[in-house]
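Hey, I'm writing a tutorial for new members on how sequence and structure tokens pair up, and I'd like a real worked example in the thread rather than a made-up one. If someone can provide the structure for the chain below, I'll link this post from the tutorial.
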Amino acid sequence: MQDTPPFQVESLTPEPGAARLVMTGELDFTTADDAFAEVAKTLAEGVDVLELDLAGLKFIDSSGMAVVMNAYSDAEERGTAFRIVSLTPYLRHLIEVVALDDVLELPG
């Protein structure tokens, strides 16, 4: 049996007015509510920029993708810039396959 690291969200301030949420572990139906609660809390603080660092995710399902898309949508509604600053090759591929790269700006 393989040990799975627990899902965690760390909130960083890379620059004034910006918040970076670093997500690690598995973002799935069991952790999506916690992840989105952290997104909502961060947006409620009135940040100018919301960044997601997804490079530490070991797994993501449709619930996890919904967290990412809802974060983007809620940020846009508030006039908050939204960026994905880091992600795994698998997650990049997944985003491209479902054509979300037309909506989300991905890091180079």
